[in-house]
Amino acid sequence: MSIFEVIAKRRSCRRFTPEPVDKNDLYVMVQAARLAPQAANIQPVRYTIVHQQRFLEPMFSCTKWAGYLKDYTPPVGYRPTGYIVVLLDDSLKGKFSDADVGAAVENMLLVATEKGLGTCWLGAVDRDKIRKMLGIPEGLTIHSVVAVGHPAPDQYPVWEEKDSDSIKYYLDENGKVRVPKRRMGEVLIPITPDLSDFE
Ligand SMILES: Cc1cc2nc3c(=O)[nH]c(=O)nc-3n(C[C@H](O)[C@H](O)[C@H](O)COP(=O)(O)O)c2cc1C
């Protein structure tokens, strides 16, 4: 797959198989994250890899899924088998930290997609509970969590051109999540005069 194909394939996956995720794949995701562009190259983002069986259910209980869908939280047997907790070093945090996290996490998601893994980036997480459970020290802010696993067959979401007013993902008649993406004509703002006006 080309990079563009990986980008187009990546969707937020909310149904996984019970097959454990290889902890080396989680490690490679972090390797990709740390090479992302970072404002002033300060690199304030930190990561914790969670793959141990005993942490999987407690981690899951700290997450919220699919706000636009009714009852689409992954049921038992379809839950993530790994997590990467995304942290910010408070002493390095600045006005572009959110952008730094965005670049780093997208790298992780793309590498995972290339490996055939499913991911869901989760902002709706119980930070206090995660901090206590994993013993995350003060001085590190819990930004978000990336859930990882092997995608359940036939349930991987697809994107489509948005053709109504709604940007909400929804379930189609086969129970597959469909994700409307704004059309090129909506996101590409024409500049006037353009270069051809000077020719
Ligand atoms: C910062 C951020 C936080 C998110 N938090 C959640 C979340 O808590 N739970 C969830 O199910 N999805 C979450 N998502 C996934 C979005 O719902 C998803 O990216 C969006 O609907 C577009 O779908 P796509 O990722 O398949 O393109 C989050 C995405 C981002 C970028």
Which labels suit this protein?
199 residues, alpha+beta, NADH Oxidase, putative fmn-dependent nitroreductase like fold, 2 domains, 4-stranded antiparallel beta sheet, 3-stranded mixed beta sheet, 6 helices, 7 strands, binds flavin mononucleotide
Detail the topology: elements first, then pairings:
Layout: H1 3-9, H2 23-34, E1 45-50, H3 53-60, E2 82-89, H4 97-114, E3 118-122, H5 127-134, E4 140-149, E5 158-161, E6 170-171, E7 177-181, H6 184-187
Parallel strand pairs: 5-7
Antiparallel strand pairs: 1-2, 2-4, 3-4, 6-7
Structural features, described:
- The protein has 199 residues and is an alpha+beta fold.
- The protein folds into two domains: 152 residues, 3-Layer(aba) Sandwich (NADH Oxidase), CATH 3.40.109; 43 residues, putative fmn-dependent nitroreductase like fold, CATH 2.20.180.
- It is built from six helices and seven strands; from the N terminus they run H-H-E-H-E-H-E-H-E-E-E-E-H.
- The strands form two sheets. The protein has a four-stranded antiparallel β-sheet with strand order 1-2-4-3, sandwiched between helices. Strands 5-7-6 form a three-stranded mixed β-sheet, with no helix packed on it.
- The radius of gyration is 18 Å and the shape is globular.
- The termini are far apart.
- The structure holds flavin mononucleotide.
- Flavin mononucleotide binds next to strand 3.
